[in-house]
Amino acid sequence: MQTPAQIVKKIKSVKVQGAKEIALYSLKYLRKFCEKNGFGLKFEVVAMMLENARPTAVVLHNCLEILKKEKKLKTIDKLIKELENSSKKIAIIGQKIIRDGQKILTHCHSGEALGIIKEAARQGKKISVYATITEPLKQGIRTAKELAKEKIPVTLAEDIAVGHLMHYADIVIVGSDAMRKEGFVNKVGTWLIAEEAKRHKKPFYVVGSHFKFDSRKKLVLEERPVSEILLKPIKGVKVRNPAFDLVPWNYVTAVITDKGIFKPEKIKEMIR
Asked: Residue 150 pLDDT more than 90?
């Protein structure tokens, strides 16, 4: 069995990525850990370590809050099942917004957003996708590979080409790491894409299960290691590597969840 430090390292290094995927990976580890060590102080320490590994994503936080109230292996099993089923529900609900022949633009790698696109293709809709490469870790390459494997026509492009690509895209679909009253959180660059979508009057959809509703008092927008951008420091030059944007709701056409499709105003009411 791997140590908590090894699990945290995998999450921090983005070998495990995406808010839902981080939660699933952590819960599956916690199940083994708690089966052996119980739900005492050791559990509390490991839970805190896992939650702090990627502090912006809210899914694991919400799952841990439930687990701390009901410390049972059955609770972990239930949460894992709910998370897995939520993605299937989102795919079925979300594919309805995609029309036959549409060109979709997406950013980074979102399992939930891709689930919608794949389901639309399975329904026989002839669609194609523009995927941003998503600097600096190039998660968009994973997106492109997944779509190509499903025989869905996909074009990979630099992030800065979004203004150009928006002329050709019919619709934008992006994932989310958290949804708050003030806006939704997603990979840095999302805000600029939302700006371009609004300027070109293209529908902009956000995807995420109810586990992504974020009522935390404080939001920590993670900054990644500078080495992801610049291997060798430049004397006199400061470098920042923000990982996320907090995008205001006024850019969003609607939010696709496992409970249905809602306008941002309704989502804000649902976040308690």
From this structure: yes
